[in-house]
Amino acid sequence: MSHAIAVQVSDVTKTFPVKKGDGVTALDEVSLTVKAGEFVSLIGPSGCGKSTLLRLIADLDQPTSGAVTVFGKPAHQARLDQDYGIAFQSAGLLPWRTVEANIELPLQLHRVPAATRRARVAELMALVGLSDFAANFPDQLSGGMQQRVAIARSLAESPELLLMDEPFGALDEMTRERMQTELVRICAETGAAVVFVTHSIPEAVFLSDRVVVMSPRPGRIREIVDVALGEKRGETLREEDSFFEGVTRVREALHGAPTETRPDNAVRGVDLR
Ligand SMILES: Nc1ncnc2c1ncn2[C@@H]1O[C@H](COP(=O)(O)OP(=O)(O)OP(=O)(O)O)[C@@H](O)[C@H]1O
């Protein structure tokens, strides 16, 4: 499955019917290409179509017009072939299964032999730093740990694509930053492409190669900001000038106009959420 393009969204329009009128245009002729191994975030005000776009890529809903392909296949086929892992905001773990058994679930469903399963689950628990919690149940874990279980589960079948809708939205700021750093590490290790929905500018800048800035009514791509802080992504990146420059560029793209000239370090005063 070594296709150079992970996701291709071509001229996609999505309208939802409403009782009166022409319907809501959640997405209006949106086109986007995500390369294999690339980290792309979707950001924009509420209602601009971020989740709709992600759901169309995951084949959880279908475009009104236009096409979505995943690794060169129609989205529907990619879903049948389980070509990607999904992690959405609420961790979605099964409360009656242990950490280990939750991570193991997709492998069980696909009848992976028990020995292979055990080895893979051990590897995944180490990857997300939960080896000591294998036998715990989700309600015995913190929110951040539950989120890590969900991420481990989404990685179980080594997908070359991860679709994530605000996976860290419910976490406190410290846990969130730690999870971001871990996700960067996991992506570097697995080479997975990611499409990541977020409301947080710094989160998008920290994680992404490119940040897709969307605008609502109708949902469109306003601008794509190349961030590509690449190798620098690590604990100290959040204190570096290149990070603040990225934050400023995404803010300007979101607000549609350049912010007024100000001393270089004044940008540190931006709302970092
Ligand atoms: N199933 C649906 N039926 C009707 N309208 C919908 C449906 N899903 C989404 N919409 C509408 O489509 C538009 C885009 O919604 P979407 O959830 O994709 O936005 P979003 O950018 O993810 O928003 P948020 O940041 O608030 O999560 C909104 O106007 C929303 O009301």
Automatic annotation (TrEMBL):
PROSITE patterns in UniProt: ABC_TRANSPORTER_1, ABC_TRANSPORTER_2
InterPro entries from the UniProt entry: AAA+_ATPase, ABC_transporter-like_ATP-bd, ABC_transporter-like_CS, ABC_transporter_ATP-bind, P-loop_NTPase
Pfam families: ABC_tran (PF00005)
Gene3D superfamilies: P-loop containing nucleotide triphosphate hydrolases
Record key words, sorted: ATP-binding, Nucleotide-binding, Transport
Listed CDD domains: ABC_NrtD_SsuB_transporters
Location of the ABC transporter domain: 7-241
Keyword Protein transport: no
Organism: Marisediminicola antarctica
One annotated GO molecular function: ATP binding
Protein name: Nitrate ABC transporter ATP-binding protein
